[in-house]
Each structure stands twice: as structure tokens, then as C-alpha cells.
Write a structure and sequence with these properties.
ten-stranded mixed β-sheet, 14% helix, DUF2848 domain-containing protein, Fumarylacetoacetate hydrolase, domain 2, 229 residues, mainly beta, 4 helices
Length: 229
């Protein structure tokens, strides 16, 4: 389990939770025809197609992280701009929405997406909204990512491009898993063509343009030492 702490936007209060179950959504765009096209593109790169879409991958709860550093075993790892929901209690006001970045092992991805999701951390922001406080405008939140020290834009979209937090809350409820300590991140939006994702720095922002409030995760990617043996 991992202990996380969030500053609640609009309140200034702090909420703590121990993550007991962690999930990664995949192939979770609302336009499933575009998702099918993306799956076909990945297949050409050797990434196996999912058996169903959208997909949901359980990952180890200790992969939920709030940190400024990721250790990578090789040079073919990268992040993904996502949002995350974290359930911190039993009530309707106890679902938090924050920014997330799924740091994925791309070399392992060709052998199994679920394996690759368990090979890197899920980085979560330190600020979050109560989902109920967004009054139906969650879809309008802007989701962006930059790479490198020069902050090259690599992703730019909206929460509404992805299946909604409410969709996944209903999936969790159907599975009997909508409970305190459960966290889920959303799957990602398309990357901008021609930008190198294999960077030593990732930054992702979830921005409410109507208020200027945001949640940001930034981290450096450090290569681990060469193993012996």
C-alpha cells in the first residue's frame, strides 16, 4: 500500500489515503473507432491487441506515487498524460480527481501491455478536486504534457476525449470495488507526431481554464546503473 496526501482545490484542506488497489484504464478514448485505428498502429510496432476495449489493468498498489523522480532500467520508457480518480471515503464527495502520468516500459509493452503497466510507477499530482465540486465541467478540463528541460509539448487535449470518471466509477461499482483506497488512472490522449517521448523529464498538467486552478506532476527520469550479471 502507498500513502498519498492531496491538497483539495477550493478548500485548501489536506486529505490522506492509503491506496489499497490501483487500476490503469487502457484504450479508453470515447471515439472507439479512433481507438481501433490506434490499436492497428500499435500492432505494426509489435504491441499485442487487447481482447476487449476499453481495457482495465490491475497494477500493484505500491506503484501509486507522488514523487519528482522515476528510476528506469533502460532508455525506452515514457509517460502518458492522464487523469486519476482516488476514492478517499464512502460518500459522493469522497472521489478526488487529479492529474496522473503512467510511466510505461515500452520495450516490455510489446510482450504484454499488462506487464508493462506493472513495470513503472503511476505518478499522481499533489492537488486534487472533489469530483462533485466540478459541477459537470470535468470534461472541459485541459490535459497537457511536456517533455525535456525545454518543455516541448507532446500531448494536448481534454478530459472529454476519454471515457469519463463517472464511467469508471460505475465499472468499479459493478465489480464491487468502489471503495476507499481504490485509485484508477484514465488511459491517455494522442501524442503529437514527431516529438520524442523517450525523455529524461516529464510534466503533465490538468487545468481548469475557467478558474485557473491546476494540478501538475513533474518528474525526472533517472537511468539505473548497469547491472552485473
Amino acid at each position: 500500500m502507498t500513502a498519498l496526501e492531496f491538497e483539495i482545490i477550493g478548500e485548501g484542506t489536506l486529505v490522506s489515503v492509503e491506496v489499497t488497489h490501483m487500476y490503469n484504464a487502457g484504450y479508453a478514448g470515447r471515439d472507439q473507432a479512433a481507438v481501433k485505428h490506434h490499436i492497428d498502429e500499435l500492432a505494426e510496432l509489435g504491441v499485442p491487441a487487447p481482447t476487449t476495449t476499453p481495457s482495465l489493468y490491475p497494477v500493484s498498489s505500491y506503484l501509486a506515487r507522488q514523487s519528482d523522480r522515476v528510476e528506469a532500467q533502460h532508455e525506452r520508457t515514457s509517460g502518458e498524460a492522464e487523469w486519476g480518480i482516488v476514492i478517499v471515503g464512502p460518500g459522493e464527495d469522497d472521489v478526488l480527481l487529479t492529474v496522473a502520468c503512467d510511466h510505461t516500459d515500452r520495450a516490455l509493452e510489446v510482450h504484454g501491455v499488462a506487464w508493462s503497466k506493472n513495470a513503472g510507477p503511476d505518478m499522481l499530482g499533489r492537488r486534487a478536486w472533489r469530483l462533485s465540486s466540478l459541477a459537470g465541467r470535468a470534461d472541459d478540463l485541459r490535459l497537457r504534457a511536456w517533455v525535456g528541460a525545454e518543455r516541448t509539448l507532446i500531448q494536448d487535449g481534454r478530459v472529454g476525449e476519454l471515457l469519463s470518471p463517472q464511467y469508471w466509477l460505475e465499472v468499479l461499482a459493478e465489480r464491487g470495488e468502489r471503495q476507499e483506497g481504490v485509485a484508477l488512472i484514465s488511459g491517455t490522449i494522442p501524442m503529437i507526431a514527431g516529438v520524442d517521448q523517450f525523455s529524461d523529464r516529464w510534466e503533465v498538467e490538468l487545468l481548469d481554464e475557467s478558474t485557473g486552478e491546476s494540478s501538475v506532476v513533474r518528474y525526472d527520469v533517472d537511468r539505473m546503473p548497469t547491472p552485473i550479471g
